[in-house]
Amino acid sequence: MVVGALATTAVLLAACSSSSSSSSASSGASTSSAATSSSSSASGQVATAEAFVKKYEQVPTSIPLTTPLKSKPPTGKTLVFMKCDISQCTDIATGLQAATAAVGWTLKTIDYQSANPATLISGLQQGLQYHPVAAIVTGIPSAAWASELAAYQAAGVPIIEGYTGDPLSKEIIANNGGIPYTTLVGQIIANWVIADSNGKANIVSYQVSSFPVLAAFDTSFEKTIRDGCPACSITPIQATIAQAVGGQGPSQIVSTLQRDPSANYVVTDDATWIDGLPSALSAAGLHVKVAGESGDTAALTAVKTGTENAFTGLATIPGAWNMVDAALRYVEGMPVPAADGQLPVQLLTKNVPFTVSNSYNLPANYQQLFKTLWKV
């Protein structure tokens, strides 16, 4: 078969010798045209990514909410917060304390361990003893504590979630920083990588997808890269909650980079998972760019010094005011708007002036904006 094919090719070449030059020229023109088209397409995708990034480098000037309460809220109510053991939950507690104080309410905080859902279940059981107007749960989706939903429904106490992947229901009336928010952030970070790499990134993606809300970031990031950067590649690291909370992220990333020296970007779905990464990279003699969601103090300090590169800020403290807003509207018999799930967002890089903080506390007058809506 191969010999026959070669013989046929030789006959065709001899018969068409007079036109071979023009055929070759035509083929060359076609190849050149295809290469130009491919290059133009890639350039267009990078330009699109750059425009997307520029939009989210702007400082937000408003909060997502616009509709005021019907009246000044009643005082003397109690709100319960199930506080996890991640630093961001400490910021949420700070925001909740300030927001409840602004309306004359009491905040009861109950600690639990992220890697041990049984501690959250016992905390929810304890929470009902305070007869709260609502309970706030962050991070852990309801599948892990569904056994308590019936008791809360029977007591007439709604759940307000933060940073989970749960849909709204008769028991869960709000989800602050939920899937729509993290989906957007995944797009922002992916577009930054595309623009910064000129469409040529080999990415190690550190993922803790046991948290559905983080899985939404991972999915959004991967889809945006796949759709907008054909020359890019992604190597995922699927970490467990215990590994991530236990600080194993930097060593897992370094091991992956050592196996693939061509990788030039690291992206994480939560900055807290990779605290200490710059030192680990330096010790291993590795040089990559680092980006991700929810920049904490360590990550944003690294952006300032140039050892990490791009993070969105996470408005944990203003987001806590969102969650109190949902409780206030529930108490007043008002609908809880979708905006109670949204957060101000900005991409923070060395080209953007910003203040290093665990919580992204902008716009600067967010407290007064909430108080105006609350009539206090």
Task: Give the gist of this structure.
With 376 residues, this protein is α/β, with parallel strands linked by helices. Helices cover 47% and strands 15% of the residues.
| Gross morphology | globular
Could you say how many structural domains there are in total?
2
Main beta-sheet annotation: 6 strands, mixed
Instruction: Determine the strand fraction and express it as a percent band.
Output: 5-15%
CATH homology-level superfamily of the largest domain: Response regulator
Q: Could you explain how this protein is built, in words?
A:
The chain is globular and about 60 Å long. The strands form 2 sheets. A 6-stranded mixed beta sheet has the order 7-6-8-9-10-11, with helices on both faces. It has a 5-stranded parallel beta sheet with strand order 2-1-3-4-5. It has helices at residues 2-15, 20-56, 87-102, 117-127, 149-155, 179-197, 212-228, 241-245, 249-259, 277-283, 297-305, 316-331, 366-374; strands spanning 78-83, 106-111, 134-138, 159-162, 172-176, 202-207, 233-238, 265-268, 289-295, 310-313, 347-349. The chain has 2 domains: 52-59 and 181-313, 3-Layer(aba) Sandwich (Rossmann fold), CATH 3.40.50; 78-177 and 315-342 and 364-374, Rossmann fold (3-Layer(aba) Sandwich). Helix 2 (20-56) crosses helix 6, helix 9 (249-259) runs parallel beside helix 10 (277-283) and helix 12 packs parallel to helix 13 (366-374). The protein is an alpha/beta fold and 376 residues long. The termini are far apart. The protein is 47% helix and 15% strand.
